Amino acid sequence: MSGFATARQKMVDGQVRPSDVTDIRILDAMLAVPREAFVPENKQALAYLDLDLDVSEGGAAKRYLIKPAVLAKMLQAAEIKETDRVLVVGCATGYAAAVIARFAPQVTATEADSALAAKARDALASLGLANVACKAAACTEGDPAAAPYDVIVLNGAAEVTPEVLLGQLREGGRLVGVSAESKPPRAVIVTRTHGEFGHRALFDAAAPVLPGLEQAAAFVF
């Protein structure tokens, strides 16, 4: 077993399983997807650590792969079905989209940094994941042209309610992400039912705030 394969196994056994992730599809996907393929070469040694990993390479805003266990727990809560269309917002280099693409039929990923979106496309193509489309778009925009979606996954946190994204959910659709509106921040699931949105807190979790979903700075005299 290569060093990365061993590290991948340890990530799943040491971080993901102990976080009460029992969905075998998610565990299998995380064992199959080489996280190091989505990380700059000089940071590949950090690929499987329990941290939000900065994958920006001199971009205007820092961009991250969120902690593996946080991602896995949110995906489990989303209960993605084999018929669901999934949108990943703020995908950075595309790792979360690659994991989801192992068990969802159609995944669209958006990333505000066009250079990172290009890297994501290359990484996804190198793994032969033909069921993922990666587009450069602001996190606040989502993907209106192809909406509605069954599931929307935020690869990060929001300090404000992402109204535009919620509007792109199908009836019965779910959005999962970290809400940094509350203290402490928590992973949440928002479900659309009869045009209404029901919010449920899942677990305490911190993640970097996605660009465009920050709270506006208060004006100070």
Low-confidence stretches: none
Strand order of the largest sheet: 5-4-3-6-7-8-9
Number of helices: 6
Helix content: 25-40%
Mind telling me the C-alpha Rg? 16 Å
Largest sheet geometry:
7 strands, mixed
The geometry reads as globular
Our measurement of the CA-to-CA distance between the termini, rounded to an integer number of angstroms, reads: 60 Å
SSE string = HHEEHEHEHEEHEEE
Query: What's the β-strand tally?
Result: 9
User: What kind of oligomer do you see?
Assistant: single chain
The structural class is alpha/beta
Beta-strand content estimate: 25-35%
What is the residue-mean pLDDT, rounded to a whole number? Answer: 95
Short description:
The protein is of the alpha/beta class and 221 residues long.
Would you write up a description of this structure?
The protein has 221 residues and is of the alpha/beta class. The protein contains 6 helices and 9 strands, in the order ααββαβαβαββαβββ. The strands form 2 sheets. The protein has a 7-stranded mixed sheet, with helices on one face. Helix 1 (3-16) packs across helix 3. The longest helix has 14 residues, at 3-16. The chain is globular and about 50 Å long.
